[in-house]
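re: ur question from yesterday

yeah so i grabbed the chain u mentioned. its 331 aa long if i counted rite. heres the sequnce exactly as i have it in my notes:
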Amino acid sequence: MPRIAHIVSTARYLPERVVTNAELAARFTTRGDPNIINEFAEHTGITQRFYVPDEWVTSDLAMPAAREALKRAGRKPEQVDLIIVGTDTPDYITPSTSVVLQRKLGAKNAGTFDVGCGCASFPTAIAIGSGLIAADPAIKIVLVVGVYLMHRLSDPNDPSCFLYGDGAGAAVLETGNQQGFIGAAFHADGAYASYWGIFAGGTAEPANVDAVKAGRTQVRRPHIIPPDHDGWPRLFKRLASDNGFTANDVDQMLFTQISKPAIAIAAERCNVPMEKCHTVMEKYGYTGSACIPMALDDAIELGKIKPGDLVVMIASGVGYNQSAAAVRMTC
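ran it thru and got these structure tokens back, copy pasting raw so excuse formatting
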């Protein structure tokens, strides 16, 4: 009998502190750039974002979403076989954030690892977790978390801080014999690895006084990645072709939540109506690795996604990486 992974529950978490566009605009107006925040808003559709308390770290942000997802699945932490955390804002370079989360959560029987392909991490982690469930009878319950705390690693004097909001989303995967996880597709282009990232603190340039003073231990966009409005549609068409479905079969499509205009263009080129492309950046801001699970949970809560629906997740991350996953929902 085939072992097929199912998403049996989801959850999301937003911190309490709201940072509006007006607050950022006031900051940059005093720095002589009064229009920059409005320009970002026009290009993205983002109106606000949320920040964690100063003493929190990424694993703390992941905790509420992880706990709630397990509660909704009717599972205790000690029942979890594997924890996969998707993030590019880890607690540390090493050890992994997933192993820190395992300890805080009390999931003492779980193995752990991180997925680090930027904001493309959640569909990637869903695909990996689903593949492990299919391949290994010992893995029955997988907790997948997408979490993002990039504002902590950004420069508050850099207008790009507009983009970085904090958040977490989680899903519990369990085995079943009905249709659940359907398939995945991936694409990358390392030619853009130097365009957006944190370029000091690793082996290329270990952290040092000069790097800190120059801001190289903070996230930077030295170059703008050229718009690729065919990238998401191309990945979607490959995913659909490889797995035997069409745009008409899709009930909801969730894209990386960084630009509502870009999502509208991609939806049209995928032949999927915009009303089937739920967005949350308007109210949550951009939450990177967490944005797709947060959008997934939000859409379920609003009744836009129901059991039996075909959901496609398509994400992009710095590097750049792209990933897509198709799932028949059971929650």
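noticed a couple things. Residues 16 and 299 are 21 Å apart (CA to CA). also The chain has two domains: 4-178, 182-328.
anyway ttyl
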